[in-house]
Amino acid sequence: MRIVVDRSSVRSRLAGLVAANARADYVYSYPPRQSYRVFGESTAAAVPELVARSLRRFEDLNLYVHVPFCRQICRFCNLYAVAGANNDLDGYVDTVLEEAAGLARLTDRKTVTTLYIGGGTPSVLAAGQLERLIRFLLDRFSDRPDRLPPETALEVDPATVDLGKLRDLRAVGINRINLGYQSLVDGEVRGLGRRRPDSAGLALLEQALGVGFGNVCVDLIYGLAGQTDEGWEQSLLRVIALAPPTVCAYALTLRPFTGYSRLGYSAVDGATLYRRYEMANRLLQDAGYRQETHVRWVRDGGGYRQKANHWGLRNVLGVGAGARSYLWEADLRNGYSVRSRSATLRSYVDRVRSGDIAVTDGFLMTDDERRRKATALNLMALDRTWTRETLAFDPVERFAEEFAAFTESGLCETGPRHVTLTDKGVKYRDLLSQTLFSREVRTRVAEFNYDE
Ligand SMILES: C[S@@+](CC[C@H](N)C(=O)[O-])C[C@H]1O[C@@H](n2cnc3c(N)ncnc32)[C@H](O)[C@@H]1O
Ligand code: SF4
């Protein structure tokens, strides 16, 4: 992540950055992961108590499980994933359950509002293995273990499922799937470095829509190598024709040590990315979708409840190698690497098996950082009553310089109860969110070394 907005001169810099089509990475969590640091002994020792205190704060809980296994590592991907067909999936599920059992001892039962199984490619797990995960987690954490959370979600690589598997997923209680298509144009798909059989085309989406999931989400990326405006439009129109409840369109994030970077691909310019964002926004809204965030469009039944809860500062407790927890008192992470993928997995398993905490690094929150988090993440439509009640602050007063700059540039409108971004503001939302990063977070991001 490159910090592009210099805080000392928000007003003068912002107009220039917008005019120059400057890009900032998607701010999907705050603080960004580049500001996480490895915990020393005393912080690590304090993690269980910190988790317990955070969980005690709310009656509800969101659970996340990271399943890092993938059939291949896609060229654009910098998520924590391990390639190969020979991974011990049953053994991995056992380890995750062992980690979860330890965490469950720190808390009373909660109302589990979302359970999200992501990755990686969790759809490489058999339905039975997923069921074992779901049942165990509800059994340990939920005040109604017999009831599935309102959102029980699974990330799916379309190439790993067929109609039979989709039915099995529904039968074990998955009610939302995210289909990671990324593109529906053959040439572009080949450039992703993915093995995808023909069956993973649109027919699969049609089948998924017919199986009875409450919510089907299609993920697309713009800025891919070899992608043209025409190709981007084709992907969008093909998806829109089938009207899935949720469509996510992400601008490519390009990172060191990915396949793209090894191949020397440098991302397309800002003007092209903003143009593709506008194409997505126009086509989806014309087709009847409502814009939920700058990366997500929804129709009836659509949405992403765990993300909304995370941005609403509720606790998200993660288990698994590479999983992150977003808690009231801290962001925590169970290891991460795109350079030593298998070693990171082995070390996670060793930690859990030897009774150590799985957490390796993270960021301890303060009142100020929590206010920045609430503002930076919810900038599109910020509820001033909510911030007053939850965090005892008013964003327009606390971040007066930033909001004055947004308003002067026509990026934001301030009402007595809400602050909302204008259409232009939504387009530049990540730039605006970056202006709210603290000095500490900026310093950490600037010092972050991708080589480590
Ligand atoms: C957490 S990832 C899901 C990974 C899952 N294995 C898949 O491929 O579907 C959610 C989505 O983020 C998007 N994504 C992943 N890497 C990205 C990158 N480097 N730039 C932009 N979007 C990315 C993809 O659309 C992906 O489906
Ligand atoms: S994009 Fe998804 S399938 Fe591809 S390597 Fe990343 S996590 Fe795995």
Automatic annotation (TrEMBL):
InterPro entries membership: Aldolase_TIM, Coproporphyrinogen-III_oxidase, Elp3/MiaA/NifB-like_rSAM, rSAM, rSAM_sf
Keyword Iron-sulfur: yes
Keywords assigned by UniProt, alphabetized: Iron, Iron-sulfur, Metal-binding, S-adenosyl-L-methionine
Pfam families: Radical_SAM (PF04055)
Superkingdom, natural source: Bacteria
Biological processes, Gene Ontology terms: porphyrin-containing compound biosynthetic process
Keyword Iron: yes
Domain Radical SAM core: 53-290
GO molecular function: 4 iron, 4 sulfur cluster binding; catalytic activity; metal ion binding
Gene3D superfamilies referenced in this protein's UniProt entry, alphabetically: Aldolase class I
GO cellular component: cytoplasm
Entry protein name: Heme chaperone HemW
Organism classification: Bacteria, Bacillati, Actinomycetota, Actinomycetes, Pseudonocardiales
